[in-house]
Specification:
The chain is mainly α. It has seven helices and no strands. The chain has one domain. Helices cover 59% and strands 0% of the residues. The longest helix has 20 residues. The protein is elongated. It starts with a helix and ends with a helix. 20% of the residues are buried.
Length: 128
């Protein structure tokens, strides 16, 4: 019985380490957003970087990342990216995002009307 349990334990350990060795490269968790991600235009990345990543980046809030996770943006298919872009524009244009407390503490980084217009155009382009 003891030999069987030892064998099972060793087998599970080997499987675990093999799985770690062969996991996909994008499965690793990064502490910062890849700013070279071609899925987001530079102009949109600038807005995201200044106003979104605190909560919606790799080190962000779990609830916020459940809605939009820019660290996982490239894993979204085109349809999901288009839908998320539309949602982002709606929330930012209504003033719901970034949230009020964040806006108060980061007044210099709150998206401007030009930023909102840019997000609108981006969302429209993705939804065509």
């Amino acid at each position: 019985m003891k030999k069987t349990m030892t064998f099972i334990g060793i087998s599970l350990s080997v499987v675990f380490f093999i799985a770690l060795a062969f996991r996909p490269a994008n499965a690793s968790v990064s502490s910062s957003y890849n700013l070279e991600n071609p899925a987001l235009p530079d102009s949109v990345m600038k807005i995201v970087q200044k106003a979104c990543l605190d909560c919606h980046g790799a080190d962000g809030n779990g609830m916020a990342k459940a809605h939009v996770n820019f660290a996982a943006w490239t894993s979204y298919d085109a349809k999901k990216q288009a839908g998320k872009a539309q949602d982002i524009y709606k929330e930012v244009s209504k003033g719901k995002m970034p949230p009020g407390k964040w806006r108060k503490n980061n007044a210099d980084n709150v998206p401007t009307q030009a930023d909102v217009d840019l997000l609108k155009n981006w969302a429209i382009a993705l939804n065509k």
